[in-house]
Description:
The complex is a heterodimer. Chain A is an alpha+beta fold.
Amino acid sequence: MRDDDVLGALLAGDDPNEGRAATVERTSAIEALPPASREWGEIDARSDSPRWGMLVDTERCIGCWSCAVICRSENDVALGMWWNRILTGGDDLDTPSVDEHGQMSMDWLPLACQHCDDAPCEKVCPTAATYTNDEGVVLVDVDKCIGCRYCMAACPYGVRVFNWGEPEKATGVEEGMVHARPVGTVEKCSLCVHRLAEGQEPSCVVSCPAQARIFGDLNAADSHINRLIQDRGGDQLLETKGTEPKVRYLPPRRRRSL
Amino acid sequence: MTTIAPPTTPTSPAATGRRGPRWAWYAVLAIGLAIGLFSFGYQLTAGLEVTGLTNTVTWGLYIVLFMFLVGVSAGGLIVVAGSELVGSHRLDSLNLLAVIVSGTAVAAAAVSIIPDLGRPFMAWQMMVSPQVMSPLVWDMVVISVYLAIAGIDLWILTRPKPMAKWLRVMAMVTLPVAVLVHSITAWIFGFLVARPFWNTAILAPLFISSALVSGTAFVLVVAWIVRRVTSWRPPHHVFADLGKLLAWFVAVDFFLLVAELVTAFTSQTDYHLAPLEMLFTGRQAPLFWGQLVFGVLLPFLVYANPRLRSRTKLLVAAAVLSILGVFAKRVNILMPGMYEPQINLPPGQSGNATGQAFTLDLLYVPTWVEYGVVIGIGAFAATLITLGVRRWVLPQAGSDDAVVEEQEDREP
C-alpha cells in the first residue's frame, strides 16, 4: 500500500504522490486533498476487508492534549470546535479526583467519535449524510448534511460538533489535510479517513507521546489491537446503550496514586 | 358574554364594519411577519451562532415551538373527526373554524422546523436522499398527509351542499393519522438511547394527551376571539362543551406525566434522577411547578366545575393557561434531555462561538433572533387564521362585511 521510496522519489524530484490518488477512496464527507508524503505511522497488519478500531490505553495517557491539538490541524477544525477532547475524572483538568477513601488519582478519558457498529447518529440522520463506510468508519457526507443536528441529539457520547458560524481559523487559511466544512453542517472525527486511504494511521495515534493509542484492523486476528484486547480486555463506553463502539478503552492496571 | 346571542346581530359594532381596527390588526400582523423575516434573514447570513444554541444544547426554542405547534394541530381535526365518529353534532358549528386552526398549526409547525436547520436550502435532500429509518423522515411524510387532510376537510366543509358521508370517511382517515402525527413527533425524541428522559414508551401517549389539551384549548380561544370581533355566532354551549372535554384531556395528560415521573423517580438510578432533580429542585423547577399549578391545576378546577366553566371569560382564561402550560411542558421535556449528556466530565463541551471556553453546564438562553423568528411564525399562523376566517367562516355566518380585529396573537 505504502510507497516505501518516498524519500528517494522526493530527492529525485518526482512527485511521490503520483498515481497514488487513484487509491484514495471517495470519502465524500472529508474530501481528501492530494495525499502528502508521510514516513511514519504505517498501519499495522490488515486483512483484505479491514474494520478499523482504536484502543486507548488509559494507563498510558498523560492528559497532554497532543492528540486533540494535532487533530485540529490535520483536519482543519475551526476555532471553538474539537473533534477530540481529553476529559478528566477530577473537578478540573489539572486536579485529581478523590475517591471515598480520600485516595487521589489523575485519570483522563480521551473522547472522540466511537465509530459505533450500531451508530445511533446514522440511524436518525434524515438524509443519510451520516454513513458507515466499507471499513467500519462512521463518516459525515457534508454535501448531504442539512444541519438538523438530530445526530447530535442521538449521540450518547457528545462527540459531534456543529459549524454554528462561518468557520474561523487561527491563521485565516485552510491549513489541514482535508477541506474545511461549510457553515451549518455537523462534523466529527473521521478516524483520519484520508490517511487510512494512504495506509497511514490517524494522526492522533502517531502523535501520542505516550503511545496510549493503538490503532488497527479488528478483522485481522493477529493485529496488535486484537492481541491487546485479548490480553487486557477493552471497555466500551456506555456499553449498555448497545451502540457497539469500535473504540475501546484499556483500564489502568494500577492506580496512579498521589 | 354569558348571554346567547342570536346568529347575527345587525346592531353589534362588529357587523357595522369599522375599518380602523381591522387595518390596525393587519398592521400588527405585517410587523410581526417583518420581524420574523428580518430575524430569519439575519440568522441565514450569520449562521446559527446568533442563536443561544450550543454543542450541548443543540435543540432549543425552535424545536419547542415545533413540538407545540404539532400538538396544537391536534385540536381542530380531532374535534371534527372525533365528534363525527361518535355521532355527536353539538360541535358542528365549530367544524370549519377548527379545520382552519388545525391546518394553520400544522403548516406553521412545518415552517418552524426550517429556521432550526443549519442549511435550510439543502432541505430538499430529505426528498432525494431520505433515510427511511429516521423518524424525521416519517414526520415529514405524516405532516404532509395531515396538511392534505386539513385541506380536503376544508374543501368538503365549504361545499355549498353538505357532504356528510365524505366528512365521515375523512374522519375515519383523520383519527389514525392524528395519532400517528403526534406519536411520530414524540418518537423523534423517544427513540434516542442517548437521552434517558426522552427514551420512554410513555412519550407518545403523553404527546397525544398534551396535543389534545393545547389543541382543544386553542380552538376554544380562537373561537371566542372570532365570536367577539366578528358577526360569527356559534351556539353558546360549544364553549362549555369544549371545557368539559378539556377537563378529561387535562386529567389524562396529568396522569400520564405523573406515571412517568413516579416510575423514573422510584428507579433511583442516576441517569433517571438527574433530569428529575433539574425539574423538581433545579434549573427548570420554577417552570415545572408553575406549569403544574397554573397550567394544570387552576385550569382543571375551571373545566371540571360546571358553574365555573359556564362563565365563558373564565373558561377562556383557563384555556389560555392550558396553552401556556403545554408550552412550558414542552420546554420541560426538551431541556432536561439536552442539559444532561451521558458523558458529562470536565472540561465539558465547547459552546457555539469562536474562543468560547469549554463549559460543563452551559445555560441555554434564547437570543432575540430566536424570539424574532418565533414572533414571525406566530404572525404567520395568525395571518392564515385571519384570512381563513374572513374567507370561509364569516360568509357562512351570513355577513361578508364582518371585521376581524384585535385578534390576539396567542402564540407564546
